[in-house]
Amino acid sequence: VHGGTSLEQVLRVLPTENVVLGSDWPWDMGTSDPRSSIEQVAGLAPVDKQAIFGGNAARLLRRAERPTAV
Fold first, then answer.
1. Cys staple from 30: which of 4, 24, 51, 54, with CB 3.0 to 4.6 Å?
2. Is the dihedral of CA 36, 41, 46, 51 positive or negative?
3. pTM to 2 decimals?
4. Direct distance between the N- and C-terminal alpha carbons of the chain, in angstroms, rounded to an integer
5. Are 20 and 52 a contacting pair, CB within 8 Å?
6. 35 phi and psi, to 5 degrees?
7. 40-58 burial by CB neighbour count: b if 16+ within 10 A, else e?
8. pLDDT per residue over 12-22, tens digit each?
9. Neighbouring C-alpha atoms within 13 Å toward the C-beta of 60
């Protein structure tokens, strides 16, 4: 998502726990400060912002570390 309007549309369709922060670094394709796009979303609770900033990714990575039953 490269802008606030697109991000707002994503957040209307997906639950917040399915959204993670990312960037196009080192390429110059998106915003230079993706965190600010999330900060500017009206009505997004601080707990949801923290989840997007890193909590959701941490949860996903912990899940990926668990071995799967065969």
1. 24
2. negative
3. 0.76
4. 36
5. yes
6. -60, -35
7. eeeebeeebbebbeebbee
8. 999 999 999 88
9. 12
